[in-house]
Amino acid sequence: MSLQALNTQDSVMAQPLLIHAFFAALLALAFIINLYTLFREKNLIQLNRKIYLVMPAIYILLSIAFLSGIFVWAMQQFAFSFKVIVMLLGSLSVLIAEIKRHKSAKFAITKKERMEAYIKKAKILYFLETILIIVLMVV
Q: Which domain, by its residues, includes 53?
């Protein structure tokens, strides 16, 4: 590959976009892991442990995907685009939903009925978040 080919706009944008897509895919994978855990694990204590094990990874991956998206947008000189706005709103909504889910998980572990209600809500939330991330990757 020549140096001239590296200076084109497409090749300059290729690596940051690849990194951004890679971490977004890992985020979707983390959601799928938690969704699988919610359906598979019947022991509530083990379920809680496994969910809490993946939780820091979700926050880190969400942060990396968000910041790499901002970086890519900056490389595009903050050009206004419907796609960018949808991705920003989508990642912000996922962050807010995860914070609310995390708060409700702390409250839910006090009683079995609350935990069962939390599991139902978490299944729906993880499914919707996974679909949202996949749709945003396709857009």
A: 3-138
